[in-house]
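Entry type: protein chain
Record version: 2
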Amino acid sequence: MSYIVFVSTFPTEANMRDGYFRRVHCVDQAFMETKRIHLDIRFWKNLKKKMVSQDKNMQVMHLNAILHFFLISTVLRKSNIIYIHSIAKVPGILLQLKILAGKVPFAVDLHGVMIEEQQLAGNFLKAWLYTYIEKFCFRNSSINVHVSEVMQAHFRTKYPSFRGEECIFATNSGNQSAVGSPQSAISSQQSKDEVVIIYSGNCQKWQNIDLMLETMQKLTATNIKFLILSGQKKHFEKLIRHKNFPAGKVEVISVKPEELGTYYEMAHYGFILRDDILVNRVANPTKLAEYLQYGIVPIVKLVDIGDYARFDYDYVPYQELNNELTPRKSEKNRGIYREISLKYGSNPLQDSISRIQNRYMTPSKA
């Protein structure tokens, strides 16, 4: 029996707010008709193996890198391709990849620039480890999957000797659909003149939350309302109280990922304030993709996030916000989302993986 092995932490209802897991889910959806095994490999957890069948084609195995080394090796050896979600997941199977070199191909979905992300976070030991891992991957992987053209160009410059295949898979929004009614006081009072500015995400430092709140305070017009969708509801509510916003000006809600679309439909503008660094320039943030999908006009600090500036998307620099904002949706942004989804959707990814599988296929794996 042939199957694909995905090496990742498996998406659940609890973690699906995170962009990493949304992307894992979207890639998995591209191979729904294929037999596949998801390996959730940890060094300090999963001391007892756990196997769960999700459907007729998919099994999830929660394993320990050391205690279940030989079981992991067997699962990988019998697969016809190994798909690794970010270089952060390579250490758990590094020895197996070396043993299976030339026998079983592997693909690396880069997700981001992990070395620079760790350096930014001050994790220099991890950055050193990922430097070794990244070099190993670009010497040995059969295919690297990028999230944007900008990321692809970055790695081509960094590793000009890479001879494997490349693919861009940009679709990571999860295709939220607007169903049901939003449980929001803003939505129940919304008039045709009301401007709804949304923020979807948590309070990480790189989200520039302080700058966002300062910007919000300057928008005093009574028809401008703010809606914050976050899993860190209590923390945001505390921040809002300290800023002394007028009653009803800001609403903070925690919603499930499948409910996001309902709130995006009512929003006109959306905050995404990223700094001008490599990590953000090569990225394809889930939040930004979702904003465009729903015709929301992003409020930005950095315009050149991923490939969107190449498509000339509608945006507003945060410095230019004023009390004269009018409610509007951007059909141009909706069109850009559809164009990127079509150009860098699941079909090119499926074709690339299929070519690699066929190249390595042997009678024993057929």
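Comment: Residues 4-171+344-365 form a domain with the Rossmann fold fold (CATH 3.40.50.2000).
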